Amino acid sequence: MSGSEKFLALTGGVGGAKLALGLRELLGPEQLAFLVNTGDDFEHLGLHVSPDLDTLMYALSGLSNPDTGWGRVDESWQFIDTLRGLGGDTWFNLGDRDLAVHVLRSARLRAGQPLSAVTRELNTALGTRHSIWPMSDDPSPTIVHTTGGPLAFQHYFVRERCTPTVTGFEFAGAAAARPLPEVLAWLADPALTGIIVCPSNPFVSIDPILAVPGLREALRASAAPVVAVSPIVAGLAIKGPTAKMMAELAVPSTAAAVAAHYGDLLDGFVLDVQDSGLLDGFRGGELVAIAAPTVMLTLPDKVRLATIVCEFARELRASRRAAPA
Amino acid sequence: MSGSEKFLALTGGVGGAKLALGLRELLGPEQLAFLVNTGDDFEHLGLHVSPDLDTLMYALSGLSNPDTGWGRVDESWQFIDTLRGLGGDTWFNLGDRDLAVHVLRSARLRAGQPLSAVTRELNTALGTRHSIWPMSDDPSPTIVHTTGGPLAFQHYFVRERCTPTVTGFEFAGAAAARPLPEVLAWLADPALTGIIVCPSNPFVSIDPILAVPGLREALRASAAPVVAVSPIVAGLAIKGPTAKMMAELAVPSTAAAVAAHYGDLLDGFVLDVQDSGLLDGFRGGELVAIAAPTVMLTLPDKVRLATIVCEFARELRASRRAAPA
Fold this sequence. Notes:
The structure is a homodimer. Chain A is an alpha/beta fold.
């Protein structure tokens, strides 16, 4: 693998973090950076919580909690137990160790530091040297429209456990949000090899990133191909409400529908081997699709998929060079 | 003890909370209220910390930490350990359970609730029915002037462990601070039996209360006598830096000097039996002094002193009634 390669990975929560971990095993800090959804961010009990940034941070630093699937390993719950006794809001679970991240982040933000700087500080403290960039330093909270009315994302996702029927999404602050200059510079690098859209929820993990003015355009204008991995396998989401959302939005919950949703953003698409039958639908189109084992249970699973995706991006990149526009 | 009696106790930290606990054993919620120093309050890591309010809250609810002498019982330290690993400020120790109080209070204050309302909410949740009133809902932070320059109180007290040499005190926000209407109403009640100044630090626990405009005047104008218990016993402070401060301020560290410091605020003064020799100095003066066992190690010690102080106040109250002004 060439030292001059550069990749950017777009990611949201737990599903995306799995591929991110595989990519990190293959690519060094000069070769790989992450662009992360912050549409899930919210203010809770006066604390700024950044669920997707933290999921990636804990994954890369080896601190993910294997029992809960979210939060931090070796966690304890004295704080939230006590808060419950005091009559405080406890629908959003906060572990004692996890809380240190939220308190430190909130204090830094209140002191005027941008989210990207606090994110770097936290990840550096935990030993991660790869760049982890929030999609913006400006708030752009995702609103989930439901048949019962609009809900802030975490209210939909955690408090209501994804039960309301979804009718659409809104990225309220996106119009005023600015992408980070570092991200635009990384994307403008003619050496960029590939842009990888991790198997995250297209609606609430990736679309909020694409809604930041200038980002979708910069992704399209990049010298590198954009390759997405389907979060839908055999009609189901590996994790989270993606398939349920698609059903409620009257979209077939298939990998093909995910590809169609991303539209002209993509140059390549990776669907699961269980969905190989769908490959026929891509033949003759502009989008190149391949099948791969996308279900990642172990670290070798993650590294294998990361290897396939990187290689796919390299091939698309090479054919783009070979075929003058 | 008459059901129509009413007492107000002024208190600061741990020393005052001991007598407060004794008083609470004797007097019901209609008969006893607490007026508490908030000059120690400070913003730390974006959280509003109210050390003296919390010391009293934990004492009255039986949750004081017997091991540390501060904070909450059954405490754990996962949060602060993690914060240390992240490079955050850890000079002020915050337990996982204690943190629930600070986070809830901070969230409520940020939402616009006054400190007195949050204090009531917290104490009610912990089972306390006696009124606990902050000296003001407005901030009035104590500044400790030292030979090395001015220090916020907690920086002097905790971060610098009281080592700097004190030259004076400043109650920066006091001029704009307003006493609670409930406190003024309680003080104006003609049925008020006694006002008890607990054995707290005169300079940094009681003076900040007296510095709130109108409070000292309301205490003086009350129908009830003001009785203080000396925090200095045999030239030493039972707890905290009172004696050290007096030495640095070139005041003799004696119970008599404490009485002189309070001046015309007091009608009665309780010094320790070890200092009985000082009683001679009060004879013939306007201030009535008695000796009592003021060292409180056990709950019976606290109740015994509370009984003596209440009885002393009743006698002063009766003699005030007998001798028309």
